[in-house]
Design brief:
By secondary structure, the chain is α+β, with helices and mostly antiparallel strands. The chain contains 15 helices and nine strands. The strands form two sheets. A six-stranded antiparallel beta sheet has the order 1-7-2-5-8-9. Strands 4-3-6 form a three-stranded antiparallel beta sheet, with no helix packed on it. The chain is globular. The protein starts with 5 loop residues before the first helix and ends in a 5-residue tail after the last helix.
Length: 369
């Protein structure tokens, strides 16, 4: 199969939306959207057959023409990993069918719906949600839901194994209290954690990340699974870094948790120059109260929290760039390279130069927090 790039993936998704409209409009018989043969009839379209595009909807290995599925979607109490994930993959990607009806179902993995274009609707248990372009909705395992999209819309599902998120949620969610609380509550099967919404301004950056993940999934090259996981991690960083991102969850979050998250967000965005006085002014709380919240939530002082954030960025620069220690010190808010080196060794137990040579974030350097 020819390797597809980001732009080709997007044009194929557009063409598939047009084919779905034709299938619905010109069908000669009443369509039952609960039956798998309805979808396989759609896949008999010459364009889909000729270009092997079924894999944009269902997990088909690169070296296989098709997979066998039961006749009726409603045969499943819960859709399992084996029907959704390619062997050796932790993330599955598929296009949302733009059909007028969708069967309610639940899965034993996490599903994230991203609407790239158009309009969509989610029915999550008894909650009805209107999905707008740029929205992400994360749905936990064993949560009944149905997703429908208007004609010509482009909706994309990122499905993720529970084991993948369970092992990586700390790094993926960047210590965001809202995301972590939702994930932990969903693991504990909290009935209030039915979904988590991430609203954006439909940035082309987020769109391109999704298309890159889709391209890796379709192409199934060597290390595609690792590439997809890394791209998803970058997507989450993009979302959390974007000041236009709004996160909503039915899981209640206390006022102090909300303030602490605001503090973390401000530190991440302005770690180079942020002072306690500036933080107090931005949050409209006193310096004393901010320090009290930071101590309660993290056990740290403001200065230690700021320092740890700066050191994390130093570690990233050391691993990902060839910048000098002097340049990194300037970029990360340290007064001198000597100050950076001293703080780095105190916290990581290793000098910045030795850390860069080791090239292993997890095994060679452990913070002494």
């Amino acid at each position: 199969m020819e390797i597809k790039n980001r732009d080709q993936i997007y044009h194929i998704l557009q063409n598939l939306s047009n084919l779905e409209i034709s299938y619905v409009d010109y069908s000669r018989q009443e369509i039952n959207y609960n039956e798998y043969h309805t979808y396989f009839d759609y896949f008999n379209n010459y364009v889909i057959q000729n270009h092997n595009l079924t894999r944009f909807y269902f997990p088909i290995p690169k070296d296989m023409e098709h997979l066998e599925y039961p006749n009726d979607i409603s045969n499943f109490d819960v859709i399992s990993d084996s029907l959704t994930f390619l062997p050796g993959f932790d993330i599955s990607v598929s296009k949302l069918f733009n059909f007028p009806k969708s069967a309610t179902h639940q899965c034993n993995y996490y599903s994230m719906l991203y609407l790239m274009e158009g309009n969509a609707h989610l029915q999550i248990q008894d909650v009805s949600v209107h999905v707008l372009p740029g929205d992400f909705y994360l749905i936990p395992p064993n949560t009944p839901y149905a997703a429908t999209a208007a004609p010509e819309s482009i909706g994309i599902f990122l499905d993720m194994r529970k084991s993948f998120l369970n092992s990586n949620y700390k790094s993926l969610f960047q210590d965001d209290a809202r995301l972590e609380r939702f994930f932990i509550n969903s693991l504990n099967q909290d009935s209030s954690s039915t979904h988590l919404a991430i609203h954006t301004n439909a940035s082309s950056m987020h769109r391109n990340r999704i298309l890159d993940i889709f391209a890796e999934y379709i192409n199934q090259e060597s290390f595609s699974n690792a590439a997809m996981k890394n791209l998803f991690s970058l997507l989450m960083i993009d979302l959390l870094r974007d000041s236009n991102t709004r996160i909503e969850s039915p899981t209640p979050i206390s006022g102090s948790d909300t303030l602490y998250q605001t503090i973390l967000d401000e530190i991440r965005r302005n770690y180079q120059t942020l002072s306690l006085s500036e933080l107090a002014e931005k949050t409209h709380f006193s310096k004393q109260y901010i320090c009290k919240i930071i101590k309660e939530k993290s056990g740290n002082t403001f200065q230690n929290l700021l320092l740890h954030t700066r050191l994390k960025m130093v570690a990233q620069y050391l691993n990902d760039t060839a910048l000098s220690i002097e340049e990194i010190a300037f970029l990360c808010g340290f007064s001198t390279p000597a100050h950076l080196s001293r703080c780095f060794k105190q916290n990581f137990g290793i000098t910045p130069s030795a850390y860069r040579k080791s090239g292993n974030v997890n095994d060679t350097a452990r913070t002494k927090n």
